[in-house]
Structures are given as structure tokens and as C-alpha cells.
Amino acid sequence: MHQSINVASVVVKEVLDLRVYRKAFHQADRLFWMSRDWPVEERYALTSQIRRSSRAVCANLSEAWRKRRYPAHFISKLSDADAEAAETRTWLRFAHSCSYLGREAFESQDSVYDQICGGLVRMMSEPDKWCGPG
């Protein structure tokens, strides 16, 4: 049985209910499709790295959610998710620098990852809202 958490009038039963998770998942999916057209020589460098780090945001957030009965573990996994989001932003800068992403696409993606990082930091700063017996 899932523990329900009422956060600001929103009932969160599972990680999929978290806005930050849905946003991160959507962006990782978008990056996958956007990166399909990048040069083949980037396949094992930039392309695989940005796909890995963007997906790792979701994976670490999922782990954090399952460890939320232990605040220190919860915060640690959220910190890992935040680090992966920051890494994704770095790969976005490289993609833009190499002209694989135009200015508008880069700014859009970077802005969303900034929002994702902000959401993760807010969760880390208020673990009592999210943690408890499961």
C-alpha cells in the first residue's frame, strides 16, 4: 500500500505524482528525440552522456521517493538528482556550443532544467513535508 502525502493540497501517492518528476521525465524524453539528429561521432560522448544524465535525474528521484522514511537518505538521493540535472545543463551548453542545439532550444531546455533544480532544492530544504513512515 502506498503512503499518501498531502503537500499544499496535492495528494502525492507515488513518484509519478510529483510535478518535478514529470517535468524531468518529459525533458529526458525530449532530449532523447532531439539528440537523434546529432552527429554520429558524438554517439558515445555528448549524446550518450546527456541521455544518461537526464534520465538519471528521474532514477535518483525515484530512489529518493522510496527512501523517504529516512530523511538523510532522501536528501542524499535528491542531491544526486540535482547533480545529474546540473550535469545535463553542462551537456546542453556543449550541444549549443557545437551548434547541435539552436539558441531558442538551448534556452528553453536550460530554463526547464533550472526549474527542475529549483524543485529538487526546495524538496531538500523541507524534507519533513515529504518524509515519514511508509
TrEMBL record:
Cleavable signal peptide: none
Superkingdom, taxonomy of origin: Bacteria
InterPro entries (alphabetical): 23S_rRNA-intervening_sequence, 23S_rRNA_IVS_sf
Matching SUPFAM superfamilies: IVS-encoded protein-like
PANTHER family: FOUR HELIX BUNDLE PROTEIN
Record NCBIfam families: four helix bundle protein (TIGR02436)
Protein name per Swiss-Prot or TrEMBL: Four helix bundle protein
Organism: Longibacter salinarum
